[in-house]
Structures are given as C-alpha cells and as structure tokens.
C-alpha cells in the first residue's frame, strides 16, 4: 500500500482550511465514494484518500479549523493508524466502545451560526439528510455543494470512460425487457411513475451490460431513469457498440448524455421512486426541488432482484468456482513446496496466484486486489503488499490470502489461511475455532424469514466462547460479474450505519461466510467460502432453507487441532474435504494429485484400535506361559484342589479375550485401509 508523505498530507490539509475559512465553512465532511455511492470508486474520486493519506475502501474525514479526524471501521484500525501518523488527523475507531460515529461527532461540535459543507454528489442522500437535520437543529447552515478538495487536487486521474460489453443471455439468464417489466411492476405497487437509479451495479444488471470504469468492478459510469413506458440510460454513446445499441433499441431503451440527468430531473412530473441509500444528496435535493415531482422512498427494485441469482447464473457460478478452486489449490501446493527457497514474498505470491487466474477460461479481471498477508501483517484485514513493503515468506507461520476473480460465469471471493511450516498451538486453536464457525454457518438450516442478524451468531459462537471476536461482519452478498460486495444480504450481529446488508435471506442469494481472528502484532486468520441459499423443505412451521457451498478448495489440515472439534464438526469438515477431492481430482495428476489426496484426507475418524498390538502380544505370550506352567504343575501333581482349576479356567478365558482383541485390531486396520482407498 502506497503511503503519501505525512508532510504532504499536512500541507493539503492547510490549503483546505484556507478555502473553508474564505467561504465560511466551519465543518467539512469528506466521504468515500463517487457520484454513484459506490463502495469502490475509481481513481478520479479518491478525494478522501487524497486529503488523509488513508488508502482503505471505507472512511470519512471531518475537518475543522483546529481539528481533523478520520472515521473508519474495525477492518482498517491498524492500517489507518499507520497511514495517518503525523498528518494532523486522529483516528476514530467506529464501533469501538465509547467512540462516536460521524453524525454523532458532528452533532457534538456544531453550534448556532456555524456552517457545515460537503459534496452532495458523493454523499449518500440518507447521510446528507441526517447532516442537514443536525444543522437545522443546531441553527447552523449547510452547503451540500461544497468541494474544497477539488480545487487543490493536482495530477487528478481522468474521469473513467471505458468501452461497454454486452452480457449474452447464456450468462445473464434474463432479458432487459423482462427486467424492466419486473421493475415497472414494483413501481406500480409503490404508486410511482418514475424511478431514478444511480448505483452502477444496479444499472449494469438491469441493462445486461458490463464495463471497466472501476478497477475490479466491471461497471460503467451511468445513471438511469425508468418510466411506465420508457427507459433511459445516461452515459456516453461512443462507449456503446452496435450490438448493445441494437439490444437497447429492441427493449425501448434510449441513450442520453451522462451530464443531462440533472437537467431532466428539473422537468420531471409525477411521483419519483428513489432509494435514499443509493442516490446521492444532490439527486435527492433536485427531485425535492422539482416543481411537479412527488417522492416515494423505497429500496431500488434492481438491488432486490439481482441479489437473487437465477438458474443460469447459479449454474455458471458452480462452474466458475471449480476453475477458480483449481487455481487456488494449485497455488497452495506451489507455495508449500517452494516457500523454503526464501525467494517468495507476499507480493510475488499474490502475483503467482493472479497469473493462475488470468489463464482461466472467460477471465476478465480480479474481483479485488489480492490480499497476501504474512503473520502479523494479516492482522490488518485489508492489508495490501507491493514489492516495496512486502515481507519475505519463511517456512514457518501462516500466510493469509484473500482473492477472487471476475469471469463471464460470475464473481468469486475466497480466503485461505495457509501453514508455511511450524505453527504455534495458539494459531491452531484460533484457526480451528474459526473453521468451526465457518462450517456451522455454512451448514445452517433456518426458516425463510431469517436475515443476517439471525444467523451471524452461528459463526461467532466458537470465538465468543473463548472471549474472542472480529470487528466486521461475517459475510457479504456477492454480485454476478459485478461488485464483490453486494447489497442487500449479509451476516452481521449488529446494524452498521451506512450498510444495507441485512435483508431476509432468500433462495438464490450468494453470500460469503468468513469469520476470522485478528491479533495485532501477532497474526490474522480468515477462512472464507461462498455459499448459495437453497430451499430445504416445507412443514407446518414454514419453509426451511439451507446453504450449499460454492467454494471448492481444501481446508489446511496442518492448522486444525481436532481437540477443539466435536463429532459434528469433524463430520462436516470431512464431508467438505471429500467434496473438494471428488470435484477437483480430474484436474490434477502425478505429485499434485497425491498432494490433493493428502490435503483432503479425513481427520479424527480412525477406527478405534484399543490397546497397543505389542502390549496385547506381550500379555498373550504371558498367559501362554502361565497355562503351560499350570499344565506342568498338574502333570507333576494331579491331585489339585478346585481353586487350581478355577485359576486355570480364567487363564483360558483371558487368553481368549486377548485373542479376540488382536483379531479386532487387524480387522479395524483393514477397515481404515479400505476407507482410505475409497477416499482416493
């Protein structure tokens, strides 16, 4: 991760304060995002990164004349502290006990007669409304079109403008006409005449297009307006090929210039449906100000519809995950075989995996920058290494690798924590408890009304039981050749302001399952599988659902301590490992196939053998000599009392018992060999 010099950041901060003072702005709020409320924005929009030096994907800066603070969540505490040191910013650890969020902090410092400013183009309407209310309550002014950073942003990246590509029905599974019909039905039910969409993934899904405007997120910069009988997409026409234009024409979709949206809002007449979480504050304000427009606030229908993958998408996802799983598994084997060379770094390991993915059929790009973090670096959840700061891997400890790919067949996201050599008992304990939680959630059965609140504890419970937790959600929705973080499904135990990921879990939703442990200065652990929701059965209590795992990559058994697993955990682990082997075996041969067989071997279920065979033989021989001694004694003196014959009988009974034990021992050895052969 590239860190801007602290003195440079301090200089930028000084210039911003000069602009604030000149324009009477006392509090300046800088959010992370673009004009479309994207989680991951292109380089052009990295104003918060420019002014703070913090490179994480989530965070908000609040600047006054005598203070500057960066607010971010638990994924980035360690990283943020390092990157803002000496810049003039202090860290606010959102979610930590006693720490205010952005809105609470602003409310605590704003006074009558003051003025707050922010760029309404990048501020989600929901947050903008909250800030406006705070200002009104305090008797303060509010400027929603204030952008001081824009005026000092030197060497800014160009506004994104890539070519669009069409997603055929063999990948999308549904036509534009069908999707627009469903959206219009939703609008009708909400008594809306017009629907404005600003979120790029919703727009690309609706119109069956993809692009490369945002790295790792195959989308284009666009807005959309849908009416009862027309559909408009606001983007530059020169980026569309003839096939896409023809498909748009068939569906009654008109292409308009990107910048024209705000002019058209002013002329809108009718009731407008907008999602205040998924449009910016400027759009919201323009709609409110339009003379002939009413407003209905509701969820984006496209967000709800695209979260439930159709049969075509799910079929493609299973296929993509097999190829992706082969690449990740080959990477793990290569890493374990070569780590002792001392020539592999965090960055070169990531590059090796990225190259393996790039050779997969219909690969487009990574779904996010690969996280490759060794030992203590893995305690930073979104750590990124390059050749300037990358740690050299040693044949000891653990490497955490979080990675994924974008394919025509869908989006993948997987994390594996890999033993590179000897590991501590503490590492094994926490790895095993993390695994226990991942498997527990993945194997859940639940009623259809459940959401992420209901299910999150299944993943956290093993860690909570030992006083450990992780400062993030357990899982997020995943798009289909779209954003790797997708609303509205997810797993977390509490609501996070600004997050929209706690919808009821439905059939067809794809979600990540990724509990973890992050101990600053020591190590980080995360195990992540993608899971797809399926129907299980109906009964008098309702519809029960379950998950099926899409990810097929071995769990690292070198990090598993079976003493922390019960019989159910062991059964789940072995079942998953068996599935991985049967799915991947045809893609491997020779040494790699042997490694796959070893990596997916069953654990914790060897047939009990009883006492040591050597002990049994020793006792057996002893009883033989005892019987022989009794026989010799009898032959020398046949006149014995009943106690002698009783002792003789017990000698025979004991040797018979031990003989049976020895027979069972060899039988059970045979059973284990048979089981091993079947697994192969």
What do you see in this structure?
By secondary structure, the chain is an alpha+beta fold. It has four domains: 6-152, Creatinase/prolidase N-terminal domain (Creatine Amidinohydrolase, Chain A, domain 1); 165-307, Creatine Amidinohydrolase, Chain A, domain 1; 311-599, Creatinase/methionine aminopeptidase superfamily (Creatine Amidinohydrolase), CATH 3.90.230; 613-679. It is 41% helix and 18% strand. The protein has 21 helices and 28 strands. The strands form eight sheets. It has a six-stranded mixed beta sheet with strand order 4-3-2-1-5-6, with helices on both faces. The chain has a six-stranded mixed beta sheet with strand order 12-11-10-8-13-14, with helices on both faces. Strands 21-28-27-24 form a four-stranded antiparallel beta sheet. Strand 25 and strand 26 form a beta hairpin. Helix 5 (125-138) crosses helix 12. The two termini are 43 Å apart. The model has no long low-confidence stretch (mean pLDDT 92).
CATH class label of the largest domain: Alpha Beta
Question: Architecture of the largest domain, according to CATH?
Answer: Alpha-Beta Complex
Specify the overall morphology.
elongated
- Total strand count, please? 28
* Mean model confidence by pLDDT: 92
- The N- to C-terminal Cα distance equals 43 Å
Report the total helices. Answer: 21
Uncertain parts: none
Remind me, CATH topology of the largest domain? Answer: Creatine Amidinohydrolase
The fraction of residues assigned to DSSP E strands is 15-25%
Placed side by side, the strands forming the largest sheet appear as 4-3-2-1-5-6
The CATH homologous superfamily of the largest domain is termed: Creatinase/methionine aminopeptidase superfamily
**Radius of gyration based on Cα positions:** 31 Å
Q: Approximately how much helix is present in the residues? A: 40-55%
